[in-house]
Every structure is written in structure tokens, then in C-alpha cells.
Sequence to fold (204 residues):
Amino acid sequence: MIFGYIRVSTDKQTVLNQKYEITCYAKRHKIKIDKWIAETISGTVAPSKRNLGKLLGKVKKGDIIICSEISRLGRNMFMIMSILNRLMEDGVLVYTVKEGYKLGSDLTSKVLAFAFSISAEIERTLISDRTKEALRRKKSEGVVLGRPRGKLNTRYKLSPYENEIINMLLCGYSKKYISETFNVNTQTLTNFLKRRGIVFRNRL
Fold:
């Protein structure tokens, strides 16, 4: 199937412009849009809490998602890279109108994916400072962080990604989405958080 994905950040914006751009693109390339997915929500919201999340859960190998530009998928490079990586692994193609991307399994896609991964590395180096600030804020709100007293400081599979995981939790990502991002099951993530003493009282 071919999906047209549209996202605007506020109800003051209109989905019509993006739909027009995608429709014209589809007409030029003789593509028929089978279904439209449109939503009014910030790109900073985790995909699992958007209609995009439902779309990611239903697409299959060979399906195509067309959006007006790559930024419609998310607000930061880490989020966009995670979404694209998941889609490429599932064999789903992503076309963008403005940039002219056709992301799939070809060489161009692999080069772009590499560029995205480099950008994501840069993003992760910046996450550390943002995480420390967020943790200070959350601690003042009653969030319990750190190892339980007497617990051994043992490294686990997810240990190298602890900062990223905490930041994603603070940003509202679900355990299921985080587990899929780091290629583990939800119970593994839950056990890791428990062992590290990371507790988000109103979230987990």
C-alpha cells in the first residue's frame, strides 16, 4: 500500500498544503495514494503517541510512505533516524517531496542512512547535557534516580545507552518504543531500569 502522511504542529496550520504537494508529487510519478494519515500534533511527541505510531505498526515490506518533507516524521535527528532505521529494516520505502528522497534499500538510501547516523551521534553527545539538566528538574519533582543502596554497579546490555534511555523516558517515549529502538524486549528494559534504580513514578 501507499500512504500519504501529513503532520502539522498546531490547529492554526492546515494540512491542505501538504496534501496538495503530495498529490502533485504522486501525479507526476503516476502513484496512487491508497490511504491518507493526517494529524495535528508536535513533532516532539513520541511516535507511539501519534497516528504515525499506528502507521509504523501496520506497514509491511514493499509499502511506501510519502510525506512533504523529512521533518514531518519528527523534530530531532535522533527520532527521525530511529523511525527511518525501523522502516528500512522492515523494507518500507519513504519518499519525501521537497528533498526528493527515496529511502529504501538502494545505495543512496544507505548513504543517507549513514549521514543520519552520524548526525545522531552528534545529537547523542548533546543529549548528555540536556539529560543532566532534565534529571535535576525531575529530581526536584520527586523522581527517584540512581542505584539502590548496596546494589552492585554491574554493567548490563543497555548500560551504554542509559543516558539516551532516560532522555527518551523524559520525552515521553513508551517502554515498547524504547525497547524496539535498542532491539531488546520490554521485560529486559524493565529489568534494567529496576536494577539501575530508575523510577518515574507517574510514567512507568
In short: Helices lie at 16-28, 51-58, 77-89, 107-140, 162-170, 175-181, 186-196. The mean pLDDT is 79. The radius of gyration is 19 Å.
